[in-house]
Amino acid sequence: MRKLLPIAGILLMVGLLFSACKKDYYVDGGLADPHYKGTIYDYLVKNPYLFDTIAYIVEKAGLKETLQNDSVTFFAPTDQSVVDALADLNEYRYQMVEDSVKLGDIPPAVWRKFLDRYILKGKYTANKFARMDPVNIYAYPGINYVMAGGYILNIGLVYQNYNNVEAVGARILTLTDITFDPVTFNNNLRVIVSSSDIQPTNGVLHVLSMRHTFGFRPIEFLLAAEQALQNK
């Protein structure tokens, strides 16, 4: 009996603590608020860890007002994408025995050309995009969209499997460079959205995967930037 009393006491204390936690300390915060009290450009500036370089080239490209005033959806590459692109350009210039360049050396028209590929007129949260299945593209093709600069991207939601049940898991927003190979869909370069449905006052912002290739095609930015630099 003496051995049972301490055990009973411990169980009683655990029960009381659990009850207290449930009643007094657990607060349901609900779903995170996706709305941001500022413009898309403001959001970039206020999140410098991911977007200080993006904010800089947006302004240099003359797109600041677009991301402040127009109703648009911005699929935002992160700073890392631009850092990687600039590193590739400078590696090429090193091999060509040319001086390295900085962000400010790249002509604004080059930044504009590639940033336009990520801007879609109108407000599109993830649930507005059609289903896309790269394994069964004829049944679920997504939709091709003409971006601000005329570039065409296929945008769609990929439905993930869960517990061996098809298409009931997470839905991943995916962008595909559809014109790279119009015949074979799976030969085209794709990027997933890592964070979706951020809603500033003038549109929607979706954040792309950290190591996304800026401009979608690895060599294209390099060649465009190098040609523009030679023509300065």
From TrEMBL:
Residues 37-212 form the FAS1 domain. Pfam families: Fasciclin. This is Fasciclin domain-containing protein. It comes from Chitinophaga arvensicola. InterPro entries: FAS1_dom_sf (IPR036378), FAS1_domain (IPR000782). It comes from the Bacteria.
